[in-house]
Give the backbone structure.
Amino acid sequence: MGGDFAPRNVVAGAVEAMREAKDRLEVLFVGPQSVVQEELHRLTENNLNHQIVNAPSIITMDDGAMAAVKEKKDSSIAVGVSLHKEGAADAFVSAGNTGAVMSASTLILGRIEGIGRPTIGAFFPSEMGVCLLLDAGANVDCRPQHLYEFAVMGTIYAREMLMLPNPTVGLLSIGEESSKGNDLTREAYQLLAKSRLNFIGNVAGRDILKGKASVVVCDGFVGNVVLKFAEGVLDLLKTKFRNHAAKNVFSKIWVGMMSRTLRSVMKDFDYQEYGGVPLLGVNGVSIIGHGKSTPKAIKNMILKAEEMVRKNITGSIRDSLAAAK
Amino acid sequence: MGGDFAPRNVVAGAVEAMREAKDRLEVLFVGPQSVVQEELHRLTENNLNHQIVNAPSIITMDDGAMAAVKEKKDSSIAVGVSLHKEGAADAFVSAGNTGAVMSASTLILGRIEGIGRPTIGAFFPSEMGVCLLLDAGANVDCRPQHLYEFAVMGTIYAREMLMLPNPTVGLLSIGEESSKGNDLTREAYQLLAKSRLNFIGNVAGRDILKGKASVVVCDGFVGNVVLKFAEGVLDLLKTKFRNHAAKNVFSKIWVGMMSRTLRSVMKDFDYQEYGGVPLLGVNGVSIIGHGKSTPKAIKNMILKAEEMVRKNITGSIRDSLAAAK
């Protein structure tokens, strides 16, 4: 029931995912039985491997982050995460209330030993491919140790899921020298420098898109501001092009022809391709999707979850923290 | 002698400024006499109102922020700011070492009474025109009172220089509610809410470009990260378009035709239009330009300085702080 277009897009995306990964995927649809049933009826094929698990109540965007673990224990978020905890499901994905998914996942699944703060990242297109920025809003006030943990988790994700052999880690700051930045970054710099990570030092805002580092760590306040700003850039460009098109008939024709090129250029900026962002640091696989998720985004989110399970990302994080001790 | 293309671009831009504002502008060129003389010789016309003030030493980008006030007191930055302090000049502009210009301006001109931290802002294009973000990197660690001061100065600048009758002020954060954000923003929210400013509450990263507020305040760490990220967006778009053009001859033709449209669309992103950013909060007018300043950027920077003097921005800030007491 998560996201602005649930259950339609969620069900449609899940059906696509099952078609694409037939032999290695079973989907448990968690939500009000009849609503999901009806939606599935419109779409599904006979030979797709799925079940419906009834969860009568719904967490809306207006509900607080603790709703799933306090008032609405029979919501799709609470029931779904619990299924994962009990082992009936190997992963949980949702395009619903981000705060609620995060708290439910953290509290029900628990944190991996050695992780103080589970984190959600954001994927940025870069000149070198993709850059994973952590934290993107889950943890507003961070200590240096948290940034180090983000770097460990980001490195594993980048290596296993983005297929980068020895991912570089950058610390988001405002100048290259270790002395530049604020108290948090200066202390985090020292922790990262003496770690076994492939730490390349401070990186600036522009280096995110340059792909100077594959993994960039920062506190969730800064990360969220940058993420939202990036979304704003795309909106502004669209508006500017539209206004330009309105000027006269010739501009209109140009802009019409240009939009195809622009779309192709912008493809890397498209969150649908990434599907969602993993909550790293919990005992399990929990992926959070955009509220406006399209069927394609949902499909990619589910396939990403299956891949994270198959590659045992959670286990790698656990091992890596144990080894660093 | 400031910037990557000094003295050529600096002199060329100043000559253009004098041509454009003939009757109300006299330029004092501060730098090594012979170098400036030679450059001027190539360009100047007889009836332009200017002088050369000798300043033999040069502050490079490698010099520390204190160089102008400590080791190199005969540099163009130190001499130029001192001319302003003594009243021989009404304003100072430079495309040189940002840190050096800031320290020299702050220490030589002094802070306006009631201002704890002078600030430099950045101009962002927005759907509503332009958004002034303060602080853009001068003050990494800020207290709530500093953010309030930035809001006062930004409001006056937006009203007098950007011609906005009653500029709105937003506090950069990660959610609309006053409780969202970090300790700094939560406390600053209270200060701004009880002020006489046109405070509209928290704004998110994407609201900068939406123009939800004319003035957006934040600490200099966050502001600088966003500013540098925005510069990176333009670089990435250029690279993407170039790569697209390389694909085949048809894309090449399209991209060629598109680049004109893109340039027009991007005009608002162009720092040259703004010329430079004022250091607000010092007793005087000091404008800092981009190291890569073109003659056009230098020209606009000088004209902006003349306008700030004519409109007595410094006096308005002084009065406004006195009234708020």
User: Anything to note?
Assistant: Chain B has a mean pLDDT of 89. Chain B touches chain A through 51 residues (CB under 8 Å). The two ends of chain B are 41 Å apart (CA to CA). DSSP finds twelve helices and ten strands in chain B.
